Amino acid sequence: MSSVNDFDTAPDEYVDAKESSHNDKRHQKAELSEDQLNSKAPNENHSLFKGYSFFINTKPDAYGKKSDINSLTRLALSHEGTILDELPDSTSMTGEQRSKFYVVSPYNSTNLNTVTATYIKACCQNNTLLEAHDYLVPYDDFKKGEQNTNANEAEAKNDKNDKTDSIDSELVGNIQLQSMTAENTTPLQLNNSKEKNKKNRRSQKNKSPTVSYNKASFTEEEDEFILDVVKKNPTRRTTHTLFDEISNYLPNHTGNSVRHRYRVYLSKRLEFVYQVDSNGRLVRDENGDLIKTKVLPPSLKKKFTAQEDYTLAIAIKKQFYKDLYQVDPDSGSSLIMADDSPVMVAKRKVTMAPNHVPGTEPSFDSFKVLDRTGPLAREFFKSFSEKNTSHTENAWRDRFRKFILPYGIDAYIEYYDSEKAKGKEPEPMRNFTNRAVRVGPPTPGNYNSVNKRAKLNINEVRNAAAAAAAAASAHVGYTIPENELLDETTMKFISTIKNDIESQQNQQNFEYPQDIAEAIRQDFANEENQYDNLEIDVMEFPPAIASVDLFLPEFFRMGSVKVFVDKIQEIISRDYEPSQAEKLVQDLCDEVGVRKTFSTSVLTALSGDLMIFPRYFLHMFKENANPPTNVPGIWTPEDDIMLKNNKPQEIDILIQKHGKGRIEMRKRFVERDLI
Fold it and tell me: How far, in Å, CA of 328 to CA of 402, rounded?
């Protein structure tokens, strides 16, 4: 879904950049390989584009490589689409024909429905016909003139006060040159020796005598490019797809890293945007110049409200009720008719509760969805989006899949009704796509009781002997004998800790008040962009700080920081009971290779807050420090000393770092001698 021409940039320069081998593995995954094109997935919808026709722009400034055009052609044809050799006459096309015809091009100079190549690829990858709205390329009637004057514009662009609306082609060349210099080769060499370059890329970088290009850094030219694209696409500034498109032309960055760069740093520099119409098309004045404005238009991506979440949850509950009992939840009348078609009868048998006797069904209010997740027909979301037009069909479906299901339909309805009954305003669901899933009210971490923390520690020391068996990294092939890690002093220490914690288990449980939990949850939400959305793809693996006394060989086999963190997220989002602390620590040991003693110390530094468990490792790897410093929620020994001293000036420093909620939580840990 990307092309430089979508952004009014210099196409020739960016075709070269895109064709070079500087796109690393992060971008290669966005391309469909030959094997993927030719293979047949078991459930693949081979009639995906049946009835649809496409004209693929084959001009050099559209898709420079013939292989790209061939790949798109094969994709469309293999899914029963039709490829046209020439543009049809739009005046002779019926309305239906126009709705099922697309030009595939990075720019729109035809005033016909035009989509980027990503649309075809995305449909095939998702095995469904997606809405084309997010992939449409606005019509630009100045396109032809701009193409003829690109060369002149590139030379004049060096002046910072230049008010033209095209990206400097020389700027693009600088980005490309830096990438190539870092690789210590030339585009010609890259094309002629791709395999050799893959094998020797790391050594080639080390041999470069003058340039050491840091993939994690953004140059000023790249920042200006990102800002220029956002200025010309203001309605898409909150979408992921826009930044994915930008990343195609910044080979050293992913879509997520570009989005993070804009949201955290560059958005503050957005002094104006270019005016667009209701369809997101750029508006020009009588001289053909783009119009600057400081008024941001509504974004395509709208936030969901609590009312919308509740409406969706109720609608899904009603649909499940209808399916299970064949009774209208509003009127209570039966949906079973004597003249039902065979298709309806067959469908009823699939969804209806087995052995259900009509008339014995519960009332709708007392009916519980429980863990039911479907099936929900595509027609449900289509019909729902027609009645609730604030979001698209796909957006409603994603809301159900990523938010409603993890939170729980029954749980949210109960929460919403309860808040309304108290005269409070409910909050919408949030952050279930990238945080650990919690059961019950939205409180931070698993703040249940001191016993849970105690059990975590005692079960850790009980299993210290098992954790002692260690091996070096997978890159080195030696093991550490068990008897070298446990001596008499260590065993005495274990016994002492064991006895102390067992005595603490008899103490009265304490719960965290709602105001503390709410304060911590709010702090986490405010911190997320800065401390949790790091450029994980460019982190070195294994990290320099990773040693065999902290990690087992399983960790070194993970391959990348992203794989490790994703697995951590999956583990901590499981539904562990307070009595299963040993299982949590054991799972971290077995599945990601974090030693039990280390994971216990991490949990202690976090005051048991699993929600920021991944944050600890991200900053540990980034800062090469254990524990990482100056990170909210991660308590260092110095922080604990300041807390115990209780000096007003030092407490103010801790409040600024951790927030009042976490300080109150830490005090309880200190009072119970859990630190």
Answer: 27
Nearest 5°: the CA angle 385, 386, 391 is 40
CA distances from 521 to 178, 514, 516, 526 (A): 42, 10, 9, 9
Rounded to 5 degrees, φ, ψ at 479 are -120, 160
Helix (H, G, I), strand (E, B) or coil at 553: helix
Centroid of chain to Cα 369: 28
For the domain spanning 31-136, the CATH number is 3.40.50.10190
Helical axes 660-671 vs 637-645, angle rounded to 10°: 80
pTM of model > 0.70: no
Residue 238, φ and ψ in degrees, nearest 5:
-105, 5
User: Are 73 and 122 within 8 A, CB to CB?
Assistant: no
Is 450-671 in the same CATH topology as 306-421? no
Helix (H) or strand (E) holding 83: strand 82-83
Contact 521, 440 (CB under 8 A): no
Nearest to 372 by CA among 417, 328, 325: 325
Q: Both tokens of residue 26?
A: 């992060």
Q: Which CATH number fits domain 306-421: 3.40.50.720, 1.10.10.60, 3.90.1720.10, 3.10.180.10?
A: 1.10.10.60
pLDDT digit string, tens, across residues 138-160: 766 545 444 444 434 434 444 43
| Amino acid 340: pLDDT | 66
